[in-house]
Amino acid sequence: MNDQAKSVDQRFDAAAPAELSSWNRQDTTWMLGLFGTAIGAGTLFLPINAGLGGFWPLVILALLAFPMTFYAHRGLTRFVLSGREGADITEVVEQHFGIKAGALITLLYFFAIFPILLIYSVGLTNTVASFLEHQLHIAPPPRALLSFVLILGLLAVVRCGEQAIVKAMSLMVYPFIVALLFLAVYLIPHWNGGILATASQVPAPSALLHTLWLAIPVMVFSFNHSPIISAFAVDQKRRYGANADERSSQILCRAHLLMVVMVLFFVFSCVLTLSPEQLAQAKDQNLSILSYLANHFSNPTIAFAAPLIAFVAISKSFLGHYIGASEGLKGLIVKSGKRPGAKTLDRIVAAFMLVICWAVATLNPSILGMIETIGGPVIAAILFLMPMYAIRKVPAMARYRGQASNVFVAAVGLVAISALVYKLAV
Q1: Is residue 4 part of a domain?
Q2: In sequence order, what E strands does 28-74 have?
C-alpha cells in the first residue's frame, strides 16, 4: 500500500511541472489584480515627485524600479507561503514569531493600510463631485449622500467575495492601461525636452545620493501592492501546493514588468512635456499630473477623461487595499479573544469599514498626506524588512538564504524608512 502511495506521489510530482508550464486565465486575473492594486492614484502624482529631482536621478530610479518592487513583493509572498495551508500574513507572523509578535504585526499591518483606504474614500468622493460639477454641469448631491453611495457601491463588490474583487480589479485595469497609453501617446507631439534640460548638469555625488534617498520611497510606494499579497499567496498555495513559489514568482514578474513599462512610459512622457518649474508648480498647487495637464492644455478631451481615469484608478486601489485592511481587522478581532462565525465577522468588518470610510469622506479632512506618510514606514518595514529577517531566522525559509537580492531588498527598505522618518522630522 505504501509503495502504491509512493508511486502515486511520484507520478503527481512528475506531472506538476507540466501543469506549471501552462499559463491559465486565473494567473492572468491575478497578474492584473496585482497591477490594479499597485497602479492607482499614487501613479498620478509620480511624474511630479520623480521628475522634480532632475534627469539623472529619474534615470537611476527607472533602472531600480523593477528590482526594487519585484524582489520585495516576492519576499513577502514567500513569507506567507512559508506558513501552514490557508494561513494569511497575520497567522504566519504568529506561527513564526509567537503570539505577541503576531498581535503587534497585525496591529501595525492594519494601521498601515487602513489610513490609505480612508484617503481613497475622500479622493473618490472629491473626484466624482468635481466631475459632476465641472464636466457634467450638474449640482452634486450632498457630500454625505454622495460618499455613502460611492462607498456602499464598492463594498457591494466586496460582498461578492475575494475572487469577485480580483476579477473586478482585473477588468478595470484594461481601461486604465488604455487611458495611460492614450495620455502618454497624446503628449508625444508636445515633448519639448522638459527634464532633458537638466541632463547636462551632472549633480555632485552627495547631492545625487540625497535626491535618490528622498525619492526612493515615492517610487517604492507608487508600485506597492503589499495589501493584496497575503490573499494572493494563500490562493497560489491552495492552487499549486509545493509549486506555489515558482508560479507566484512568474505572476509577480509579469505583473511588475507591466507596471514598470506602463508607468515609466507615462512618467517620461509627462516630464518630457513639462519643465521642472511647471512640475514644481503642480506640486505647490497640490494637483495630480492629470489635473495639471488638463489646465495646462485647456483640452476638453483631457478635462473630461482625467476624472474618469482618476475614478477607475482610485476604485481599483480601494478594492485592493480593502482586502488587506479587512484581513488586518479580522486578525485583530480574533486575537482579542472573540471568535464570531465567518459570516458574522465579514459583516462586522464591512459595517465598520462603511461607517468610518463614510464619516471621513464626508468630513473631507486636509491631513491625508500626513496620514499616508505615517503609514509609510510601517509598510516599508512589513514589505522589505520582515521577510528578510524571516529568511535569516525561520527554518521554513532557510532555502532562500545567501541570495544577493536579500541584501538589496533590506538596503532599499532601510533607505525608504530612513527617508520617510527624515521627511516627518523636517
Answers
A1: no
A2: none
Among candidates 112, 68, 93, 30, which has minimal Cα distance to 321?
A: 112
Overall size of the chain counted in residues: 426
SS3 content of the chain, % helix, strand, coil (to 5): 85, 0, 15
* CA torsion through residues 396, 400, 406, 407, sign: positive
Q: Which amino acid appears at position 251 of this protein?
A: I
User: 290-307, pLDDT tens digit by residue?
Assistant: 777 877 777 777 777 777
- How far is CA 340 from each of CA 330, 333, 400, rounded to the nearest angstrom? 10, 9, 37
336-386 tens-digit pLDDT: 877 788 889 989 999 999 999 999 999 887 645 655 566 667 788 889 999
Tell me, yes or no, whether 110 lies in a domain: yes
Domain count, the chain: 1
324: Cβ contacts below 8 Å, ≥ 6 apart: 109, 113, 226, 227, 228, 230, 231
Instruction: Give the whole-angstrom CA distance, residue 373 versus residue 132.
Output: 30
Which of 30, 8, 412, 20 is closest to 232 using CA atoms? Answer: 30
CATH number at residue 44: 1.20.1740.10
Contacts of 219 (CB under 8 A, 6+ apart): 46, 50, 61, 64, 65, 68
Q: Which amino acid is at 285?
A: Q
Asked whether residue 36 is domain-assigned, the answer is yes
**Calculated CA dihedral for residues 72, 174, 324, 162, nearest 10 degrees:** -130
Q: Which structural domain, as residue segments, surrounds residue 46? A: 25-68+100-229+251-425
Alpha-carbon Rg for the chain, nearest whole angstrom, is: 22
SS3 223: coil
Instruction: Quote the pTM value.
Output: 0.80
Query: What is the chain's mean pLDDT, rounded?
Result: 83
What dihedral angle (degrees, nearest 10) is formed by the CA atoms of 379, 113, 231, 28?
Answer: -90
The answer to whether the beta carbons of residues 256 and 73 sit under 8 Å apart is yes
Spatial separation of the C-alpha atoms in residues 336 and 130, rounded to whole Å: 42
- What are 24's three cell numbers? 491559465
Q: Where are the alpha helices (DSSP H) in 285-399?
A: 289-297, 300-335, 342-363, 368-380, 386-393
User: 370 is written with which cell numbers?
Assistant: 500626513
Q: Residue 77 to residues 71, 97, 134, 140, 252: CA-CA distances in angstroms?
A: 10, 17, 43, 42, 9
Sign (positive or negative) of CA dihedral 61, 414, 416, 201: negative
- Whether 83 maps to a domain, the answer reads no
